[in-house]
């Protein structure tokens, strides 16, 4: 990875929690990241280039009155508590995924990341009977984060991801090579690499369908905030997740009138 701000990022972000989206079905993880970055008013640290990403450039996603552009890989930072948000805006070339994830792990090592949170999604039509009956956020943990299953996640209504083969059989909640994650992109690969390197890691999932998945993204973002308490309150009012201006263009502009004679 390369960036003009990489040394700055490594210098001030030591021991931070890293939150990042998997590039997964319906972009739910990336939409949830938009909500968290906008709602926390996180500071942008820089753009990172990596050969694995399809290049992208566009208008600033969080401010309308600014000429600064966004790219496919951006890093934001929250000073208190110490959180790094890594936002991805384009797909990763399949044959370069492993290289990218290995470089991510090296980056986590360089900043001595305290824990990794992966926000992901799964195909809605792959649910088993148990998952259809209870449409909650699911999670996978690692040996360092199993304690969350019976404490924080219980209070938030987050359940360990069930086994695929048996509808009512729960797993231990720990990610394994055989975990069935349809539509979750590189989630399993990155999660297992984090376990191998000893990083505390949690993956959060929401089942998604084609169409408007802003409600699923909102639930994922709310879950992250319920756990980490990173969205500020204003004058003792209830917390509110703020949608960024870019969400006005999620579905593009109106259809050309010329299509309807």
- Estimate the helix proportion, in percent: 25-40%
**Share in β-strands:** 15-25%
- What is the residue-averaged pLDDT? 88
Given as residue ranges, the uncertain stretches (5+ residues, pLDDT < 50) are 1-7
What's the helix count? 7
Helix/strand/pairing category: alpha/beta
Number of strands: 10
Biggest beta sheet summary: 8 strands, mixed
Radius of gyration computed on alpha carbons: 18 Å
**Strand arrangement in the largest pleated sheet:** 2-5-6-1-7-10-8-9
What does this entry show, briefly?
It is built from 7 helices and 10 strands. The protein has helices at 6-12, 28-40, 97-110, 129-133, 152-156, 187-197, 214-228, and strands spanning 17-21, 43-47, 57-59, 69-71, 73-78, 83-88, 115-123, 138-140, 159-160, 201-208.
SSE layout and pairing:
Layout: H1 6-12, E1 17-21, H2 28-40, E2 43-47, E3 57-59, E4 69-71, E5 73-78, E6 83-88, H3 97-110, E7 115-123, H4 129-133, E8 138-140, H5 152-156, E9 159-160, H6 187-197, E10 201-208, H7 214-228
Parallel strand pairs: 1-6, 1-7, 7-10, 8-9
Antiparallel strand pairs: 2-5, 3-4, 5-6, 8-10
Helix pairs in contact: 2-7, 3-6
